[in-house]
Amino acid sequence: MPEAGDNPDSLMSLCTVFCLKNLRRTMCYTGERNKLCLRPDVFLPSEICDKLVNVYMDLVYTDSNFEAQDGFFQLFSDPRSTRLTRLQLRDLVRDKDVEAIKKQVGKLSVTRGLKSLICICVCNVNESVSEMPHMMHILSLFHQPTNTSFTYLNPGMQAVVDVEALLKPLPALTSLDLSGVYLPRPAFLAQWRDRLASLVLYNVDLSEELISTVVQMSRLRHLDISRENQRNSKFKMTRKILTSIVQSLGNLVSLDISGHIMLDNCTVPQFEDAMGRPSIEPSKSSIYPFQELKRPLQFLGLYNTTLCNVTHIPAYKVTGSKNEEQVLNAIEAYTESRPELAHRAINQLFDIARIQHCSQLLRALQLVIAALKCHKYDKSIQVTGSAALFYLTNTEYRNEQSVRLRRQVIEVVLNGMEQYQEVTVQRNCCLTLCNFSIPEELEFQYHRVNLLLLKILEPARQDESIQRIAVHLCNALVCQVDNDHKEAVGKMGFVKTMLNLIQKKLQDRMCDQVMEFSWSALWNITDETPDNCQMFLNCNGMDLFLDCLQEFPDKQELHRNMLGLLGNVAEVRALRPQLLTSQFITVFSNLLDSKADGIEVSYNACGVLSHIMFDGPDVWSVEDPERDWVMDKMWDAIQSWDVTSRRNINYRSFEPILRLLPQGISPVSQHWATWALFNLVSVYPSKYCPLLVKEGGVALLEKVLELDSSQPETKDMARYTHTHTHTHTHTLSQNMLCVHHW
């Protein structure tokens, strides 16, 4: 069963996203001048309309593959076919969009960036706001002859504004957010003392006059007088002030005093604080003023204060930095409107996941994902969030994560990679992707992730660590995937990008992991993919092969990867003539004697030559070395290999080897192919015996035994391979029957 909060998407959510991504195929049609129009037989209730608009804004803001639709908001302009009640619009909204929906919206939140406008209005209250002298432009859109009154307002103005004049025409206010607003004459707020249920004064310079006004608001249920930090604050929170707030505001259920310096001692002695199990009962509170509460608070913000460290806090949910629970509460409470605080809290979560152990993994991941989505353009959030994700998705926590949750992580990581070319974000994102099973877990975003990684690798001079991780990911992504995927990635410029990296390393005379991974990636992407092999040759890949061989004669891993790649090229008959030059044949022949990486370099060089020899003596256009001389060297090399050698190679198909068996034009090629099968089914029978049977290899081995041209040594190996495969598969079948019977 999925954990709470990690259930599959509802049918409503799935249908909403599908409709938004396919508007013209579902609820809309194309009208005159390509205008997006709602179908005439469609009527959408408020629940669906609100969901469509809010999810649309979320997709535009967080999904890079989703394109905004011109005219989308005009679909909701007619109250006869649509109903809107509660919307959350972001800074992407345009004036004409608000104009389209103004007639019927019930509750609207318009956010223009972190430092400007947020306003919420409630309509159909019998008062006009047309006389408001200083209202911002967005509010002027509602200054039409409609009965409208604002019950919640956040002017959010950083410049000096006459807030008193701005708000006076709004007697019906019940919620007011004055975050960051300068209040030289706070007494005017008293006009709402019998109405206000919520007052937010975040980052407002407090004064005795303002506090005395606030404590008159007896109906307040939520009060926020918190600060971002303690710097530049002349106001000190005293025990007397806190007691006054608690005693005067008896209806409070939520209080935030984060970021304040406590002037005098508000807490009980340490020995008393340490007594008993943690309690939320007000009478047992470790903070003296809160002993006056009638009941525990639902929420208490103590972030960046010393008060969060005490034992007995009379609140169900507390923000702070004492433990994981408080940190997660802080991320949850501050992500949407206070990214500067959320950034600090995510950084603390990062330390918990890295040094200690995260006990609320699901919640932690969901909160970090939400923060990264909400603040896609906030560099500090992206840096800390991506770093936290790296530790929250590592092996220690893997078993606790569903497929759906891990996909959400991948999506926000890719969002960060798209938005930021900054080194730290890119490194964190790439490292996080390394925590996933590749390519399996990334396949649902296969095209996108490959494009992003290739983009990272484009610059001539890239951060060394990012380059290394990105090349490793590229290599893993093209390993063990089908040919369609490889061809698609090849068309993105994969081959050219890898060769550019190799060229750069050659210029620096450096054979490091980037060099070796790049050749390995080319080996993987050219496997049974002729188009990519052709690209390799067209991009002067053979010249780079020769240069690397000359510059790094002792790099065994490098030689193995390069020869593996050339084996793939040699399997393509149409490309083999490009390998048939005196220079290349001499190089391949010399590599037959190589002892690098066990038998791998010699084996791969012999494989390249086996395919070339398979085309027969008529196509051999090389005078030096002679064909017979090369074949003799191949026989000698094969005879020197230990047939029990464990291999550093992985075959998905035997087809390129099997085609060399039933022929007499090149006995040495047949011998190499038979040795390869002999070795693989002997050392790895469970993997390769079934593959040999599946691909018809047993019948082809029988043909080898029938051919007069087959050499005795070849027939011996073919006979053993045939018998061993038959015995293994028969034994496996018997075991399966026994298990079934039991």
Features:
single chain; 742 residues; alpha/beta; two-stranded antiparallel sheet; 30 helices; 48% helix; disordered C terminus
Spatial sequence of strands, sheet with the most strands: 3-4-5-6-7-8-9-10-11-12
Helicity, as a percent range: 40-55%
Count of runs of 4 or more consecutive helical residues: 30
Q: What does the radius of gyration come to?
A: 35 Å
Q: What's the mean pLDDT score?
A: 86
- State the secondary-structure class: alpha/beta
β content, as a range? 5-15%
Number of beta-strand segments: 12
Separation of termini?
30 Å
Major sheet, described briefly?
Answer: 10 strands, mixed
Topology:
Elements: H1 11-21, E1 28-30, E2 36-38, H2 46-62, E3 86-89, H3 95-101, E4 107-111, E5 118-123, H4 137-140, E6 148-154, H5 163-167, E7 175-177, E8 198-200, H6 208-214, E9 222-224, H7 239-248, E10 254-256, H8 270-273, E11 297-301, E12 315-319, H9 324-334, H10 339-355, H11 361-374, H12 379-392, H13 403-419, H14 423-433, H15 446-456, H16 464-477, H17 483-491, H18 494-507, H19 513-525, H20 530-538, H21 541-551, H22 556-570, H23 582-591, H24 600-614, H25 627-640, H26 655-658, H27 667-683, H28 685-694, H29 697-706, H30 712-741
Describe the structure.
With 742 residues, this protein is of the alpha/beta class. It is built from 30 helices and twelve strands. Strands 3-4-5-6-7-8-9-10-11-12 form a ten-stranded mixed sheet. The chain is elongated, with a radius of gyration of 35 Å. The model is unreliable at 111-152, 155-159 and 735-742 (pLDDT under 50).
Summed up, what is this model?
This protein is of the alpha/beta class. The chain contains 30 helices and 12 strands. Residues 111-152, 155-159 and 735-742 have low confidence and may be disordered.
